[in-house]
Amino acid sequence: MRIFGFTEYGGPEVAGFLDVPDPRPEGDGVLIDVDATTVNPGDIKVRSGQRQESFPVRFPMAMGREAVGTIRELGPDAPTDLEVGQRVFGSAAPGIGTFAEQTVLTGTSATPLPEELSAGTAASIPAAFGTAHDALNQLSLRPGQPLLVIGAGGGVGSSALSLAKAAGLTVWGVGSAGKHDVITRMGAEHVESGPGWTDRVRRLGTPVAILDLVGGDVLREGAELLSDEVPAGSAAGSAGEGAGDVGRQVRILSAADPGLAKELGGSGIVRHRTREVYARIAQLLAASAAPTWVSARYRFADAAQAVADVEAGHAAGKIIIRI
User: Fold this and answer.
1) What was the pLDDT predicted at 134?
2) Which tens digits make up the pLDDT trace of 45-83?
3) E strands within the chain?
4) Where is the Enoyl reductase (ER) domain (predicted)?
């Protein structure tokens, strides 16, 4: 089969189209013919080798971590309620990517595709909407409380704005001037990034919590915006699995720089890549209770350009690749 992948770690030059043997589902794996997949910043970090210690790679491997498609074959331990010919979406099994004609999803994440949901939207759920959903659950804010999302214009950021607004939060999204439309369309107040951005936030008020998708100095600056005390009645940051020391309130979560977030009293995002979570998000999106933003759709033949758009930081919302 044909994949867009890599045979060694490195920059854009190591990625390209490759012919590889067809995958086979092992254990609870679900083999699908891929309809659509998406490009995420994490895909680029895997290709570059930045996640070697935490992410399994089997060369040659396709890029991509989420997909929607039609079941071709089920592994011996796959969920018994799934069947060949059924359309599903979910997260890729360890060591296999999704920029490919076929891929294997984990049985725990393979979720039946609602008829009302488009393939592109469903393909965006596991990484972007899933991360946003898990972060908001971890923060556990109450309706009306202000959440600051740093790096709000990308896939995870726009998904977080959408879900947060649907949950009744007051949402402020930090992003470049070019991300104004996606941030405001997702229901948030746009705060333009760049010099003086923290002053612009202060004019809006004091955020209860921060969801960071940028890291580094920007996250350090953002942490200074939080008040020293959690507002009365806030449920923000109840410590849980992976959320820090028991009893410590965590109001900073970072997908981009979890180490720094921990240094600042927060944590990384604890992911729950399960069918139950994905089905819950799919129902919300199918009911149009939360908007989505797809900035571009590419053919499989143009996968390199799709990756380049995300790597350059210019993409707003989600980038979809149709196989």
Assistant:
1) 98
2) 999 999 998 888 999 999 999 999 999 999 999 999 999
3) 2-6, 15-19, 30-39, 61-62, 66-74, 87-91, 102-105, 111-112, 146-150, 170-175, 189-192, 209-212, 252-254, 294-299, 318-322
4) 10-321
Q: Please report, for the domain that includes residue 239, its CATH number.
A: 3.40.50.720
Query: Could you count the other beta carbons within 10 Å of the beta carbon of residue 86?
Result: 15
| Domain housing 23 | 2-124+292-322
Domain count, the chain: 2
All residues at 6 or more sequence positions from 189 whose CB lies less than 8 Å from its CB, including other chains: 170, 171, 172, 173, 204
DSSP state of 264: T
Q: Is 76 left (phi over 0), alpha (psi -120 to 50) or beta?
A: alpha
